[in-house]
Amino acid sequence: MIIIAIDGPAAAGKGTLAKRLAKTLKLPYLDTGLLYRATAKRVLESGGDPTDPLAATAAAWELSETDTARKDLRDASTSMAASQVASIPAVREALLAYQRSYGSANGAILDGRDIGTVIFPQADVKLFVTASVEARAKRRQLELDGKGQHLTLAEVIADVAARDEADRTRATAPLIPAEDAILIDTTNLNADEAFAHALAIVKEKAAL
User: Fold this and answer.
1) Residue 10, annotated ligand binder?
2) 9 labelled binding-site residue
3) Does residue 57 have a known ligand-binding role?
4) Superfamily for 3-206?
5) What is the pTM of this model?
């Protein structure tokens, strides 16, 4: 019943790290960001406004596994809309029980923005994964290029910075490290180095 919380800003590498840790430790994995992205996508496709609490909350309650399995949840417009719906308290409340139930069933690794501060403040291990805005923008640009979405680096930097600002300044569950979270800066780390560092921390903290 180990709970590992991995938080951090967009494109810091927390998703890649979380999935790899989950596979190695044989734990279920939940990308909680997909819940907000899928909620945002439902609102956008219905012609609604992601900042409208009623539309966003209704979309959150109607969410299904089909929504979170979509392959088009990481485009720039959905990313910004996800940050907007995530700032709405009723949306976060709608998705809170799902996340806690998922983790409490058999233990899990969850990554997101508020796992260690709100969803599982009692997590066995809390990691806060970050990197410079420029490094994260370059990673996101490569990801978007691979999907045929070609943006300039300046455009991606602006998008990442705007998302950071929205996540940091929202009134509900802002993006901040838990007091007992261990910081991992991946600016100058490749995926293997970040994984080795995180795995060592997890083994020490969880006595694995």
Assistant:
1) yes
2) yes
3) no
4) P-loop containing nucleotide triphosphate hydrolases (3.40.50.300)
5) 0.86
